[in-house]
Amino acid sequence: MIVNGVNLPDPDIGDPDFIEKFENAQQRCSESFTEAANKDVKWSEKVRSQCIAVFEFFEEVFGEGAAKQVFGDSVNLRVCVDAYAEASNGVRDLDKDLAAHFRSMGENINRQQRRHNHPQKSHKKYKR
Hints:
This protein is mainly α. It has one domain (13-105). It has helices at residues 16-38, 43-62, 66-71, 77-117, and strands spanning 2-3, 6-7. It has a two-stranded antiparallel sheet. A hairpin with a 2-residue loop joins strand 1 and strand 2. The longest helix is centred in the C-terminal third of the chain and has 41 residues, at 77-117. It is elongated.
């Protein structure tokens, strides 16, 4: 998965532990954004808090050092939000690919089951 021009390993979206980690990290990031927006602090502090929320999301989802790898020393809200969207969309795309894979397997299995349960009837031979 490429995020902000950095190649991160594709997460295992078939693993329920990863899915739970991803969902929890998204929830915390969203809550942090809302909390920062509602704080009565300087604008710069709001932006910094929101960037930190995204950094923490990357650390939790992709592992220690991922935020530094993706963002370097930059603290820029636009870059953070774009990278967060790339990561979220990337995980959703992987999920769609997995679902399509299972659908195609299901169609093949269903076809095999129908053939097994309903063998072709032999045609009656005409008597001459």
